[in-house]
């Protein structure tokens, strides 16, 4: 919560000059519908003659299925059908969208036949006239399980005697991957004056979008057209994948995302459920609805993170980082989810240089199959894991050298851009000291250190934690992504269309689900075309309306989708300029375009507005020779590089070693996301992201028992932070425009989630340093903090 | 999950409690949600529907103190015996109906161990349990423990929900046993002496 007199103030768009619309903190135009209930979520869709499905899920994390008896369920009044694997006559295998050389691809059936591999694995689908009847019928399905031992931890899964999840991958190794230079890194360690090491668990998190996953499918047998309305972050991708999974022609499949209540990555992936709903609609030729119960989302939404890591850093006496060595075991869960192989590899290993000039890095990652739900991208996806590890190691390294953590960072920051890291990527631009200086100002850092020393004398434990994070957004270009294993391009399409009256509709292949694209894209297009902001409408999330698209994830929408709209707007202005020149009887090169007006240079009276040109383009009464009527343009924008937002987040905490309680006294977020299209939306993204990051640091974590049973399977057992858990945040920013894209933007959707955990954990470790605490694994629940504070204290006491 | 506890029964003897807790009829009556508890030959082949039908038609014989201790001892749990039970218990928002089979692994006065498993449509459990009777100044303490693996819907709710349910079930069970036994020692029929002879 930012106090009313702080933070960015929202502005009514009517109070903004057209020329200033880009970069103004105007109110989000999508909010009235969301706040009043006028929004249309998937579950709001009611179609005539609609039936409902419920999905029978495995109660065991690992079992052979000796039989499924559906007769009792089928006998229940109102039940139309119970579908099991035996009834399927489609490929029904969920594909993996990112391949690695060593990847062990395993079958991922939409309905499990003879084996289930996680609690929640789908076994059967009930189709019934009423939703409650469908769920009642689930309890009448008799499944004959032969339970098998389960394994949920990636390191344990890679042990020789671990239960085998897939017989085809007998050692549970999904892949074995590395990046960087092992020899060079070994040499750096051989020359090191100091080596620090750390074992870190980055716990498995459950996404918890406010709206559970849902789908409504409608099939028209007369023309073979199938419509699927669903909670999607990427409708075109879902269409492509689903067309293969259910063997339905892509051009006769429409996927549409209505309003979507949050995703955080969990609505990128192609799950079994939505395909099953589509199949049920085809089978019964009636509209079919499915909405996950909250307990189902806990069992089946792809969790994120799940790393066990050992890391070592080589240092010189002077305080230089010489080398960084990382060995990670990553949990992939029971099957390979859509983009799972990319997350702990290219989205993780490539970020291990952090903001630092590291001359040698080597990282190896073993992906492990386990009996937990398939793991995939969750807000930040690989980059939070990297940033947490780097910043915890930096904190440890500074302490080991007896240096101040801020000074140690400053000494090792990358100074020159572009910067080629030792882990493949090239940073576009940055000014890392600037965000650090600003964060230290907010903290009044030197004064805090004095206050901390005084407090320690009084037996109080205050600490400050810094997090100098970096992330990579807008994955690109497609050619590079393809070389790295992506089975999709990572461009984005944008269509900008003038209507004859002069208003505009912009279509983009991204698919917002809370980010405010209707507002920001309209700002971009209004600015490019010089038309009134209110005259621009934005359309996303419908494969029938939008040429193509890759969706919204990885903080790519502004950088890639926004840039596609810029490119289309520019093409459109070029055409409009030629029409204007023709009608103004001037050469096109003599016509200037500014704020929506075409003027003949040197003859200011001879002008046309772009909306007048639009009307003329559709009248087509007086067009240049060989020019087609109409005024619209489509672009497929494929960026030249990633963009690299960065910043420094910092927390000041007080820890009570007697109770293990943590009080966040101050939280500062200084972010550089390049140019800001809408500072209010940027601030909101930071707020939400930090809340999720603090959630990971202090509260969240999926826990399984020895049998692979999820014991944190509800909101009562899994702590999503509530308003009372989130401290006031001071947000600030610097601006280093990205040279990669025409908007100079870098992406902000994940920044807070990436930055926050290590700010908090570093602060707690700083606070408890006098008690000998070096590291506590997240979440920092009071019990863990108390144990860490007191275990070390007890040992010290004993020795004395 | 592990559960354990001690329940104190007043004005009873160890022998009475032993006999009562060995009586499938008494146990069935005391166990909340238990529709039947009968001995079966093959623990892997139990027709619960048929047993439920039989149970519905059957009139149970009397239990202590009305029952003849000899009859109770005769029908009592035996070491190595398998017993089928149908138990419905509300856990949070669900009320699974567990088809349960229990085997008496060890039965040596005053200690008894049992193992078993139960399954419902969306939940199941496997458990090992034991109890020891300890004579106290004013009665008997039943010390009991259970180690259970719980699966499915019920497991998802976690120990937070299951613990209170377990405590409620166990508490009601022993309260009912206490009620049934309270007349045993009070009567003048010499029942107490007759019971002690069976141990």
TrEMBL record, chain A:
Leader peptide range in chain numbering: none
Pfam families associated with the record: Ald_Xan_dh_C, MoCoBD_1, MoCoBD_2
UniProt-listed SMART domains: Ald_Xan_dh_C
Gene Ontology molecular-function annotations: iron ion binding; oxidoreductase activity
Keywords noted in UniProt: Molybdenum, Oxidoreductase
Keyword Glycoprotein (UniProt): no
Domain Aldehyde oxidase/xanthine dehydrogenase a/b hammerhead: 36-149
Protein name: Xanthine dehydrogenase family protein molybdopterin-binding subunit
From TrEMBL, chain B:
Classification via InterPro entries: CO_DH_gsu (IPR010419), START-like_dom_sf (IPR023393)
Signal peptide: none
Tree of life domain: Archaea
Protein name per the record: Carbon monoxide dehydrogenase
Organism: Haloplanus rubicundus
């Amino acid at each position: 919560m930012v106090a009313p007199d702080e933070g960015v103030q929202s502005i009514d768009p009517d109070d903004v000059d057209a020329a200033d619309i880009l970069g103004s903190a105007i109110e989000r135009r999508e909010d009235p519908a969301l706040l009043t209930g006028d929004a249309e979520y998937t579950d709001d869709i009611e179609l005539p003659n609609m039936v409902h499905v419920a999905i029978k899920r495995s109660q065991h994390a690992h079992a052979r299925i000796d039989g499924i008896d559906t007769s009792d369920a089928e006998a229940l009044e109102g039940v139309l059908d119970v579908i099991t694997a035996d009834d399927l006559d489609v490929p029904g295998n969920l594909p993996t969208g990112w391949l690695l050389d060593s990847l062990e691809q395993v079958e991922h059936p939409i309905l499990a036949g003879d084996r289930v591999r996680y609690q929640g694995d789908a076994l059967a689908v009930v189709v019934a006239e009423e939703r409650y009847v469908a769920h009642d019928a689930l309890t009448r399905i008799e499944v004959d399980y032969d339970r098998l031992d389960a394994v949920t931890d990636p390191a344990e899964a890679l042990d020789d005697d671990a239960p085998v999840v897939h017989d085809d991958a007998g050692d549970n190794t999904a892949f074995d991957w590395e990046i960087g230079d092992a020899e060079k890194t070994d040499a750096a360690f051989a020359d090191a004056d100091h080596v620090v090491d750390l074992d870190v668990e980055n716990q498995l998190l459950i996404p918890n979008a406010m709206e559970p996953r849902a789908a409504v499918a409608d099939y028209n047998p007369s023309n073979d057209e199938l419509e699927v309305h669903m909670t999607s972050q990427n409708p075109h991708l879902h269409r492509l994948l689903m067309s293969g999974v259910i063997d339905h022609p892509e051009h006769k499949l429409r996927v549409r995302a209505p309003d979507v209540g949050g995703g955080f990555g969990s609505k990128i992936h192609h799950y079994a459920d939505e395909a099953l709903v589509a199949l049920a609609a085809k089978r019964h030729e009636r509209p079919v609805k499915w909405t996950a119960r909250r307990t189902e989302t806990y069992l089946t939404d792809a969790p994120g993170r799940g790393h066990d890591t050992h890391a070592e850093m080589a240092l010189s006496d002077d305080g230089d980082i010489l080398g960084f060595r990382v060995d990670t075991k990553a949990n992939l869960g029971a099957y390979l989810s859509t983009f799972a192989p990319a997350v702990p590899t290219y989205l993780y290993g490539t970020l291990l240089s952090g903001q630092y000039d590291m001359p040698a890095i080597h990282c190896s990652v073993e992906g492990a199959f386990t009996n937990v739900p398939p793991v995939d991208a969750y807000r930040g996806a690989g980059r939070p894991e990297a940033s947490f590890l780097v910043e915890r190691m930096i904190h440890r390294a500074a302490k080991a050298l007896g240096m101040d953590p801020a000074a140690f960072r400053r000494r090792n920051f990358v100074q020159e851009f572009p910067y080629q890291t030792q882990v493949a990527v090239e940073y576009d631009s940055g000014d890392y000291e600037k965000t650090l200086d600003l964060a230290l100002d907010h903290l009044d850092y030197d004064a805090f250190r004095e206050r901390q020393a005084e407090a320690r004398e009084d037996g109080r434990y205050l600490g400050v934690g810094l997090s100098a994070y970096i992330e990579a957004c807008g994955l690109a270009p497609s050619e590079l992504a393809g070389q790295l294993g992506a089975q999709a391009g990572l461009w984005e399409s944008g269509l900008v269309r003038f209507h004859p009256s002069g208003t505009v509709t912009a279509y983009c292949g991204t698919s917002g689900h809370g980010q405010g694209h209707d507002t920001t894209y309209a700002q971009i297009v209004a600015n490019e075309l010089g038309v009134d902001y209110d005259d621009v409408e934005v359309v996303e999330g419908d494969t029938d309306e939008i040429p193509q698209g890759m969706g919204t994830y990885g903080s790519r929408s502004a950088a890639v989708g926004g840039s596609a709209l810029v490119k289309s707007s520019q093409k459109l202005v070029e055409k409009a300029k030629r029409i204007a020149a023709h009608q103004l009887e001037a050469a096109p090169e003599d016509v200037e375009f500014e704020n929506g007006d075409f003027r003949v240079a040197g003859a200011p009276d001879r002008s046309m507005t772009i909306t007048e040109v639009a009307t003329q383009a559709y009248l087509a009464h007086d067009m240049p020779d060989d020019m087609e009527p109409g005024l619209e343009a489509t672009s497929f924008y494929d960026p030249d590089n990633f963009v690299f937002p960065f910043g420094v987040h910092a927390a000041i905490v007080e820890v009570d070693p007697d109770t293990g309680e943590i009080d966040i006294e101050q939280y500062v977020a200084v972010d550089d996301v390049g140019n800001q299209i809408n500072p209010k939306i940027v601030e909101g993204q930071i707020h939400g992201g930090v809340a999720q990051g603090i959630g990971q640091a202090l509260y969240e974590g999926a826990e399984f028992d020895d049998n692979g049973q999820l014991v944190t399977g509800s909101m009562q057992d899994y702590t999503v932070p509530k308003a009372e858990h989130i401290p006031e945040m001071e947000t600030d920013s610097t601006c280093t425009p990205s040279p990669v894209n025409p908007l100079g933007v870098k992406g902000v959707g994940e920044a807070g989630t990436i930055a926050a955990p290590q700010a908090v954990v570093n602060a707690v470790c700083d606070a408890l340093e006098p008690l000998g605490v070096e590291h506590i694994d997240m979440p920092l629940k009071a019990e863990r903090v108390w144990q860490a504070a007191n275990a070390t204290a007890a040992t010290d006491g004993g020795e004395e | 999950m592990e559960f354990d506890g001690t329940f104190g029964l007043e004005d009873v003897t160890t022998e009475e409690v032993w006999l009562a807790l060995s009586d499938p009829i008494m146990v069935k009556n005391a166990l909340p949600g238990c529709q039947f508890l009968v001995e079966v030959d093959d623990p892997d082949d139990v027709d619960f529907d048929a047993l439920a039908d039989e149970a519905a038609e059957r009139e149970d014989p009397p239990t202590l103190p009305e029952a003849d201790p000899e009859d109770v001892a005769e029908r009592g749990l035996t070491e190595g015996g398998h017993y089928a039970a149908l138990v419905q218990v509300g856990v949070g928002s669900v009320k699974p109906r567990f088809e349960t089979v229990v085997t008496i692994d060890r039965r040596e006065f005053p200690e008894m161990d049992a193992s078993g498993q139960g399954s419902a449509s969306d939940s199941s459990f496997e458990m090992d349990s034991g109890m020891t009777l300890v004579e106290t100044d004013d009665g008997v303490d039943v010390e009991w423990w259970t180690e259970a693996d719980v699966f499915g819907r019920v497991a998802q709710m976690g120990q937070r929900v299951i613990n209170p349910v377990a405590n409620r079930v166990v508490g009601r069970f022993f309260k009912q046993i206490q009620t049934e036994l309270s007349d045993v020692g009070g009567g003048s029929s010499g029942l107490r002496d007759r019971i002690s002879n069976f141990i």
